[in-house]
Amino acid sequence: MTAEERAPAAGFDLKLGPLHYRFIPGDDWGGEQVRALAGHLAGALPPTAPDRIVRIARTEPAPGESAWQRHDSPLGTISYHTGSPAAAWTATASPELPAFRYQFPWALLIADCARRSGAVVHAGFAARNGRGLLFLAPPGGGKSTTLASVPAGWAVLSDDAALVWPEHGGWQASPLPSWTTMTAAASPEAGQRFDPGRQCAISGLLVLAKEPAVSIAPLTPLEAAPHLYRALNEYPATVLTDLPLQEHFFRTACAMARALPCWRLGLPRGADFWPRLDALIGARP
What's the CA gap between 196 and 13, in Å, rounded? Predict the structure, then answer.
């Protein structure tokens, strides 16, 4: 099936964690963007009404409407209505950011997720038998290398970024288009599409540390919160959108650190630590 067949003129529906977006082309340029989204991302048609109906066109919303909020950044121009699902995407990422993963209304997603007490976290996410673990580390800290060693029985949902939000007294996570080879493999040419609609309950957090032997030590909420706060602030899309959400990220980091068990995972290069993670979260078959 071609990208054009996957993106009819009526638009493209996308599940993003707890959010349901519908992208509608408003002109030929908007149609190109919708086809690009449909070519790279797995669409979905949730039974609920869309949280956002995003019109993609070069024309701006009518000026003078106080209910519209506009956000400009190197990742594009987004305007969204505060009293309805309406939103407008009128410019994509600057030419200096050509990769597809930048061509996405990140400011809208981050703002909408914050309104649901969630955020984008710079972390890997792997799951086994419905139990998920977030892997936290600074850039170059070993997230992708660690998750590349995942054994059978585990599924890597993302090795770079996840959307997190509170739900039913716990926390959920779903993958996001990332800066890694996982997204490169999901393309029309490869015959695959990245699916940001998958979600799983978070059973715990792991802070990665390079050490000479495998070790697992519990972290208190006070020790874990700074690692989470850093991870909520440092994702490239979050940095580039420059939304004023630092207080929200601080509160989110504290809430997650209090609600979820946290461990420091010491890792030597090439170590087999996965059996210990099975036992850690009680995810054995």
Answer: 12
DSSP 87-132: EEEEE---TT--SGGGSS-HHHHHHHHHHTT-EEE--EEEEETTEE
Asked if residues 197 and 15 have their Cβ atoms less than 8 Å apart, the reply is yes
Residue linked to tokens 């993302």: 158
Q: What are the residues facing 12 on neighbouring strands?
A: 23
The predicted-structure confidence for 36-68, as pLDDT tens digits, reads as follows 888 888 888 778 889 999 999 998 876 655 678
Domain 119-281, classified CATH 3.40.50, yes or no: yes
Q: Where are the domains of the chain?
A: 3-115, 119-281
Predicted confidence (pLDDT) per residue in 218-272, tens digit: 999 999 999 999 999 999 899 999 999 999 999 999 999 999 999 999 988 777 8
Question: Containing H/E element for 237?
Answer: helix 236-241
- Whether the pLDDT of residue 156 is over 80: the answer is yes
d(CA 200, CA 173): 6
* Nearest partner of 134 among 47, 243, 219, judged by Cα: 219
Strand partners, 26: none
* Alpha-carbon gap, residue 285 to 8, rounded angstroms: 42
Asked if residues 224 and 207 have their Cβ atoms less than 8 Å apart, the reply is yes
pLDDT at residue 146, as a whole number:
84
